[in-house]
Amino acid sequence: MPPTQRVRKYDSAKLAAAVTAQLQHVRTAVAGLGEGQLALPTRLPGWTVRELVTHIPLTVGVVNRTLEAPAAPAREMTPVEWPSATAQLAAHADEVARKTAADTKPLDLLDGIAARFAELTAVAPADRLLAVRSGAMRLDDFLVTRCAELVVHTDDLADALGTEIPFDRQALAATTRLLADTLAARAPGGSVEVRVPPFAVVQCIEGPRHTRGTPPNVVETDPLTWIRLAAGRVAWAEAVAAASVTASGERADISEQLPLFG
Are residues 104 and 76 in the same domain? Predict the structure, then answer.
């Protein structure tokens, strides 16, 4: 039988701080952008930098809106189920980003959402149920998905601008662990060990289970490459060819499990 997956618990205060810190990194990057840079294309189909920098704070604004609304009656989704639900949210996110970008200044939007987020999360309990579109989630669980949104889209923004934007360590760690746990939940087993130092190690894929010594099938990569693979920003073969991923063992090709979003 596949090994039982440990359910990870999250610290909502630390995650809220990580969200705030990553928003600030984005704000710093956005503050110096001119109209020409806001019009640059991104790797997200049909979006310019303007739509992207509008969407980024809106992903956090969902927390504000649902904390201000009545609590959901029951939990409907766990963090590892969330990446699969993102595809059904894409059309709505696109519509809202375009509409908001047309009549809102990016910095005004960022500042307003960040300030309200800090106020609301400072007093909200970790187990508060949020009635979000993907399915009702606990606040602490949903905050880890906000870290994932921010980290993935910060990387998209850096790519579009051709610059480096810092990643908050806690946000990067939470995103790495969430996506590693998602892989383990989606492809349970113990035949392949996936290592993303220094943040995550999981076993996955059905087959002979490793119990001691050096695992026969090992995948190892850095956090940002792992996140790009999970988000479909880079292909498995491309990452292996670039030596951003090492895969040893005849079962170590996990390309069929990727990407994890959608």
Answer: yes
